[in-house]
Specification:
By secondary structure, the protein is of the alpha/beta class. The protein is built from ten helices and 14 strands. Bound molecules: uridine-5'-diphosphate.
């Protein structure tokens, strides 16, 4: 039986595909390649170029393949973009989830691991944020993911599916040796942008807001190595395969770093001065997002292994080897 990885050609999906493949699992990828890269997939991995909103084509994939469980990574995921294209986010993310669950139910596939986000919390009252915190997204991206979580919960109650909702905080870093890594077009995430400055591909990094109520005025985020995230997915899948109950958990390191601290850490790792300038706040950004990952530790026995230096070092290896991402 195969594991279907929806959005498997994207940044986080591709790292999971490779890890499952290396663990000897039968892996099948569905991706519309709107933001993903077929080159990120190892030879031998079967790719179906399908948009999950296309129910007929998705149904055909489920008819052809023997699928036991789904890992769902296919979503638009940029906070800033979601503020100006809210309906695209709702359509792609929410409609995609409805179609996927419809087809899963039709084919009797009853296990799903779903990529959710810290953005479901909005401006949290308590830091670190527990899963029980108020859910109050400050942007359409977070709103769409919250809707997806809720749709999945009701589908699971009605159809007996079991799910793992993993609420990621800020994921960065790359596969060991820089074989695969992060390549968004246009790039909007902090760590790759900082490293593009170090590579000389951008003149400077713009710091979006320096008047937040944080220790240096810049936003605080909880940065997690993509390989620690992958470990959590493997454990979540194993949990569902062993008959475990549905659950929701945060995935983060439990430590917050400001944008300024990330730039400083990257200066140390790369030896480059990385010029930075203050810019206006990016709308939709909460001031602070730091995870409590106690639930992931309790349910999955998961402990992240990498700190921000290791995250930046691994991303730096990828960027140096692939200055033009998957075009190299
Ligand atoms: N950020 C920034 N300059 C950039 C890109 C991001 O100051 O060029 C900030 C952004 O405002 C946020 C943090 O870096 O506070 C992380 O942003 P990213 O887009 O990487 O992830 P998000 O928190 O939106 O998931």
């Amino acid at each position: 039986m195969a594991i279907l990885i929806v959005g498997g050609a994207g940044y986080i999906g591709s790292h999971n595909v490779r890890a499952l493949w290396d663990a000897g699992r039968d892996v099948i990828v569905v991706d519309n390649l709107s933001t993903g890269h077929a080159q990120s997939l190892r030879d031998g991995v079967k790719l179906h170029m399908v948009d999950i909103r296309d129910e007929k084509s998705l149904d055909a994939v489920f008819g052809k393949e023997k699928i036991d469980a789904v890992l769902h990574f296919a979503a638009l995921s940029l906070v800033g973009q979601s503020m100006i294209q809210p309906l695209d986010y709702m359509d792609n993310n929410v409609t995609g989830m409805i179609k996927l669950l419809t087809v899963m139910q039709k084919h009797g596939v009853d296990k799903i691991v779903f990529s959710s986000t810290a953005a479901v919390y909005g401006d949290a009252e308590t830091i670190p944020i527990p899963e029980t915190a108020t859910l109050n997204p400050t942007n359409p991206y977070g709103e769409s993911k919250l809707a997806m979580e809720r749709i999945m919960r009701w589908a699971s109650e009605a159809y007996g599916m079991r799910y793992a909702v993993l609420r990621y905080f800020n994921v960065a870093g790359a596969w060991e040796g820089g074989i695969i890594g992060e390549d968004h077009r246009p790039e909007s995430h902090l760590v790759p942008i900082i490293l593009q400055v170090a590579l000389g591909k951008r003149p400077e990094i713009k710091i979006f807001g320096d008047d937040y109520p944080t220790k240096d005025g810049t936003c605080v985020r909880d940065y997690l190595h993509v390989m620690d995230l992958v470990d959590a997915h493997l454990l979540a899948l194993e949990h569902l395969e062993n008959g475990g109950d549905s659950f929701i958990c945060n995935l983060g390191n439990g430590m917050g770093f400001t944008v300024q601290e990330m730039i400083n850490a990257a200066r140390e790792v790369t030896g480059h001065p990385i010029p930075a300038v203050s810019a206006a706040r990016r709308s939709g950004d909460p001031a602070k997002l730091v995870a409590s990952s106690q639930e992931a530790q309790r349910i999955l026995g998961w402990h992240p292994q990498n700190d921000i230096r290791q995250i930046i070092e691994s991303a730096w290896t990828w960027h140096k080897k692939h200055p033009n991402g998957y075009l190299d």
